[in-house]
């Protein structure tokens, strides 16, 4: 079940088309046609205003031990229901932050998680202490990590990802499409 924030990024759409997958998406660009063979399950977006969300997240973290990137309760329920309904063999999360968000849900159901890092999520985002903390937990639980280059692999190794979990798959474009 590839999971990502939008269906508008061409490289992600290419993966979805090649996998003929069920997609659990938090935002769906309705102006783009959904190809045959693809099932889209739209997840609820955040319900709280940003300031209140940050406050609620901090309180939940103190009281319940939630991580800094956890899904809101309605999002988590919807995602768990999607996983239970479709029973995927594996979840593919696009980008590190989304991997962190869905990691606990996958772990609770025993579904392997593969996280695809693309660049910013491995280079600039780790400047945040909370994000680095979330990555440590993610690297412990993820079954595999996909990166687009040796450079990003090196960054993730420095952040604590086990070498044997990382696979480099460069993002390329089929020239026959042009």
Number of DSSP helical runs? 7
Strand content: 5-15%
> Runs with pLDDT <50, length 5+?
1-7
How far do the termini sit from each other? 29 Å
Q: Rough shape?
A: globular
Instruction: Output the structural class.
Output: alpha/beta
How many strands, which pairing sense, and closed or not: the largest β-sheet?
7 strands, parallel
The strands making up the biggest β-sheet line up spatially as 3-2-1-4-5-6-7
Can you write the helix and strand succession as a string?
Answer: EHEEHHEHEHHEHE
List how many beta strands DSSP finds.
7
Q: Can you give the helix content as a percent range?
A: 40-55%
Average of per-residue pLDDT values: 77
Question: What is the alpha-carbon Rg in Å?
Answer: 16 Å
Which key features would you list for this structure?
seven-stranded parallel β-sheet, globular, single chain, disordered N terminus, 15% strand, 178 residues, 44% helix, alpha/beta, 7 helices
